[in-house]
Structure formats: C-alpha cells, structure tokens
Amino acid sequence: MKSTWRMIRDTLTIARRDFTAIVATPTFLLFLFAPVLMFGFGAIGGMGGAMVGKNADAKQRIYAVLGSDEARDFTATDIRLRDLFGEKSTPPELITLAPEADPAKQARTLLDQEDHDVPAVLYGPLEHPTILKRNAESSSASYLAEVAEQTARARAGGFDRPLTHPDFVRIAREGSSIGGTSATGVFAVTILFVLTLMLSGQTVGTMAEERSNKVIEILAASVRLESVFLGKLIGMFGVAMVFIAFWGGLAGLMTAFLPGEAFAKADEMRPVIGIIPFAILFLVYFTMAYLLLGAVFLGVGAQASTPREIQMLSLPITIFQMAMLGLASASVALPDQTVSLIARVFPFSSPFAMLGYAAREAAIWPHVLALGWQLLWVALSIALGARFFRIGVLKSAGAKPRWRRKRDAEIAETSV
Amino acid sequence: MVQELALEAHGLVKKFGGKRVVQGIDLAVPKGAIYGVLGPNGAGKTTTLRMLLGIIEPDEGHRTLLGNDSPREISDEVGYLPEERGLYPGMKCKDAIAFMGALRGLDWKTGRARAVELMTAAGLGHAPDMKIRKLSKGMAQLVQLLGSVVHRPRFIVLDEPFSGLDPVNQERLEALILGERDRGATILFSTHIMAHAERLCDRLCVIADGQRRFEGTVADARALLPMKVFYEPHHEGADIAATLPGDAVREADGWRFTLPEEGIEQLLVRLIEAGHGISGLSIERPGLHDAFVQIVGRKAAEEMA
C-alpha cells in the first residue's frame, strides 16, 4: 500500500514537472495553434480547388435552338427540373436561341464556341429533337433530352403547371440506420486516429531531454523508472488534453453559429449505444489509445541517444499507427469477419476497433473487458519500456526480489 | 562499543560486458560520519556508489542502507549528487531544488521555502528566481547540491562534489557538508582532491582497480608511511652524506630523509659532533596524498592528478 502510494506520488511529481515545463513555454503556443496552419493551408487549397471547379462549371453552357413558344415552355420545364438537382450537380446554364436559316449549322457553331465549353446543343422539333454532344456519356445531353420530353408531354396535354401538389412530411428515424452507424464508426475511428497520430507520437522524444541534460541519474536514484515513464506519459497526456479541450471547445462554440441545415447529415450519424455513452467512450478510448501507443513510443524513444535517432524513429512510428488504423478500419467495414475480432483483441488497435464496435452494438460489457485488457497492456508496455531502459541505458538488471536479497546477504555473511 | 552503521556492504561485484569493474568491495560507514571514497579514475568509485544507492543492482554481494536491504525503498531518506550534474535548464533555481525534494517526498511549498533558505545560506540569495540556464557552472552545481539535501536526508552521497568548483564555492561546500553532519546526517563522498578528504573525512576507503585497498581514518592512512625529517646543516662538510641515513636526498639548502626508527636525538648528536651543526630541523607527518600514492601506486596517482 505504501509503495503504491509512493509510486502514485512519484508519478504525479514527474507528470507535473513535464506538464508545466511544456505548457508554460512559447513553443507550446506554436504546438497549440499548429492546426490553424493545417486548416489554413487546407482551406487555401480547398478554396483554390473549388474556385477552379467553379470557374470550369461557370464556363459551361447548354443551348436549345427553338421557336419562341417552345423556348418559353422549355425554359419553364428547365427551371422546374433544375430544382431536383443539388447545388453541386446542377446542369450547366441553359440558353435558348431562335433558330436561324440552317439550325443544324447554327447548333454546330454553338457547340464549337471557344469562349465557353458547350457540352450539348438541342435543335429541331421538340417531338424529335437532335442533340449534339461532346462526350459519349454526356449527362448534359441526357438532361436536354429529358427537358424536351417533359416539355413535349406538357404541351401535348395542354398543361401549363404541375398536375400534382404533394405534401412533404418528415418522419425522423428513431433508431440508427445501418448506413448511419457505419458512417458514425468510420467517422469516430478516423477522428480518434488523427488525434492519436498527432499527439501520441510526441512521447517518443520525452526521455531524450533527461538523457541529454543528465537529469535521468537524479530521477533513477530517486524514484522507480516505471514512475518516471508513467509520469512522463501522464504529463504528455495532460498536454494532449489541453490541446483537445481548446480545439474541442472552439469547435463547440462554432457549432452554435452554424445553421440547422449544417447538421442534417449529422442527424443520420447515430451510434447504437447512444450519443452520450458514445462520447464518453470516445474520450476513454482516446485515453487508452494515447497511453498504449504513447507508452510504446516512449519506451522505444528512450533507447535513442541522439535527436537524429529520434527523428529516424518517426517513420516506423507513423507506419505502425497507419497499420493500427488499417486494422481498425477493416474492423468497422467488416464487422462480422475475423479481422474485426482480431482488431478488437490486438491491444494497440483495440481502442479504435472498440469505438467502431460501440457505434453498431449496444452492449456495454465488451467495453469493460476491453478497457481492462488495454489497461493491462499499458502497464506491460510501461514496465517493458522501463526494463529495456534499465538494461540498455543504465546497464543494470532490475531490483532483486526479497528472497534473492536474503540469499545474497546469507552468502555475504558466510564469506565474512 | 559496537558502532552503529548507516551503510554496510559486503562483496559487491559489478560486471559490464563481462569485465568486473567492481570486484568484491566491502564498506562500513558509521552513522553520523563523513566517509570518503578515494581512488584514481576508473577505479570503480561511481559504480560502487550507484550500487549502494540501488541505481544499478550488484551482480554479486549485498548491501544494507539505513537498515534496509533495498536502497530504493528508503530513497526518501537519501540525498544524492551524481558525478554528471543534471538540471532542467528552463527551471527556476528554487523550483529545481523543490522538484528534487518532491522526488524524495517533500511537498513543493516546503521545498520552495527551504530552497530560498538554503540558497541564502549558501551565498545564492540573489538567485532563487533565476533560471538554471542563466547560472554559472559552479552556481548550478551548488544548486544541485542544495537539491540533494533540501529534504533533510539521513544519508547523503556526493560523487566528486568539489570538481568544477572555484575555491570560494569549495569552501562553501565544505561548510555545507559539515553543517549536514552536525544536523545528524551521514555523508559519503567520493573525491580525488586529497585536501578535502583530509579536512573532512572521519573515515575513508581507497579503491583501485575495483578493489578496496585501504579502509580506516585519515590518521591510519598517514600512519602507513613513516615521518620525514628536513634537516638544514649549519656548516655542511663533505662527509655529511655518510652521517645521514641512507635515504637522505638533497633538497634546497637541506636534506630530507625518513625519521630513523630509534628517533632523531642520536642522529642529531652525531651531526653536531661531526661539526655540521643545526640551522633548521623539522619533522613532517606525511600527507594523505603521500599515503594515497603509497596505496594505489605512483602511476595510478599520477594519472589521477
């Protein structure tokens, strides 16, 4: 009991030192606002891409060469049908023109215009129009054909307005849709992975500070190495939580200013286990993923004696994390396959896979089991990291058990 | 009367890569004593100290620190200044000292308060809020030393505490060690500066090639060598060398030789009768340095110097 209390005390002392040493520096601000750079570059790239796409779309037109009556009805049908398309898949702007002496030649000239891209041109009588198109699978040509069909039908029946007036009634889904739970799983696992990728890899170089400034000798003389490792891990986890709290809080604030439609898709994403338990599990599994991967990276990084060696380690670490993501993603995509079970049982992919599991299954007890299993592996990883450090860096075996100390004392006594 | 021991070690052995760097060392440090561990470079001093503290485990042998056979379990009672000094450069001095105290179970608030007291007493009263990176090497070393005693340990281990310190700071450190001893702590330190060992140590041991070559008081060490005589004749005749003992060597205006076993009186009578007279005479007790050279061998001693 006394040694447990002491281990907690020592661990918290190390964690406190590491946490304050990192958070109370200008470098931490750079770390905290790093996503601004990431989002900034992403936004600039995205805006550039969108502009290119939008400009390309804006430069597209489709033409209908028709008499004035037909052109008026054709335009009315176009306006009605255009509403069926979303903003991103709306057909190019339609322009109607009166036929000239040779409509075929006129249509061909329009198709070859150089100041705009013209994917399709319609001319001739509505009942039997000719549609010129650039591509074999031209959706613009199909659209012109459909507008012609609907216009011709309306004109043949003498209709100048829609015949039906449907009432739209929305019935919200009470449970979770299969697609929704799957999307929730993929989304949550991806977010968990990105957070872990960004934050847990930082533990790899934490022992380097103590090795380079020789403080490790003080720590090794004062507290158990396991406490040093766990304390450092907790200190870094505290830093990660500050990061998450900051950006999570900011994201929460931003959602307050978003219009309701922005959450239309999010409504579909309902974990089977329930939103609040899922959110709690997300935090718990983030903790476990961080501690598990962080403990491994800390242990591996502690063996490195130079910054270059630490830098070299970043590639295998990223590959390892990618492998865990791959396993967890396979688990979400193929929930009934063996790979899903493997991903949930393998300790380092388990937090990711179990989060995906929480999206599609309501049972709680597998999570209790999984958390116990993962905690065991956190402890094992820390113990192994400390042991390898003791052997590889301090050149010493661990403390002898009591029976060996007693035996050594007896041997020493008899030799005296 | 049996002296109570703060530290007891028997047959400590440590191998690195198959090489035995410590070969069965025995130590017995009385409670409340200042105990010196002397030895040339590579003798195994630091490895021995690290084994005594439980930083590394001995491959063979047994040690008991403050009555406990697992030094790690009583590390709160121990203070340690390692040979390779280490502090976090970004920390304030008082925080660095408090941190070292916190590692040994002292709460941060008390640690900070004591840090300021200790720094003031050690002549660093202006520096508690200074960052470690702003300190000179000697000041940083002193701060680390204060960190190793801030929790008022019962047993203090200092590995080469004087190296790198200027004479003023060496004097401060000596005062600090004596102050800790007066408080009741037992102090074990390694050094290669004989003057400090001579002034401070109640007992000492000399280690060479991983083995203990000597254990005892400073007086015991010095007693290993005979006393020396420096004689200056009044009228030095040509036959003076024949009158003096065989080991006499010329030095400046006089002669140096080992004090004869029968004493100095008969020799003086002979010198006066031979007409050499006495201009000056001194009988010198050999220093610890000479004793050390005698124990470890001149070559090893020269390497250390």
TrEMBL record, chain A:
PANTHER family with a match to the protein in the record: ABC TRANSPORTER PERMEASE, ABC TRANSPORTER PERMEASE PROTEIN NATB
Keywords of the record: Membrane, Transmembrane, Transmembrane helix
Descriptive protein name: ABC transporter permease
InterPro entries: ABC2_TM
Residues passing through the membrane, by range: 28-52, 178-199, 233-260, 272-293, 313-334, 364-386
One Pfam family in the UniProt entry: ABC2_membrane_3
Broad class of the protein's primary localization: membrane
Subcellular location: Membrane
UniProt superkingdom: Bacteria
UniProtKB/TrEMBL annotation, chain B:
Annotated signal sequence range: none
Keywords: ATP-binding, Nodulation, Nucleotide-binding, Transport
PROSITE patterns membership: ABC_TRANSPORTER_1 (PS00211), ABC_TRANSPORTER_2 (PS50893)
Keyword match ATP-binding: yes
Organism domain of life: Bacteria
Any one GO molecular-function label of the UniProt entry: ATP binding
Residues covered by the ABC transporter domain: 7-234
The keyword GTP-binding belongs to this UniProt entry's keyword annotation: no
Recorded family membership: Belongs to the ABC transporter superfamily.
Name of this chain's protein: ATP-binding cassette domain-containing protein
Species of provenance: Stakelama flava
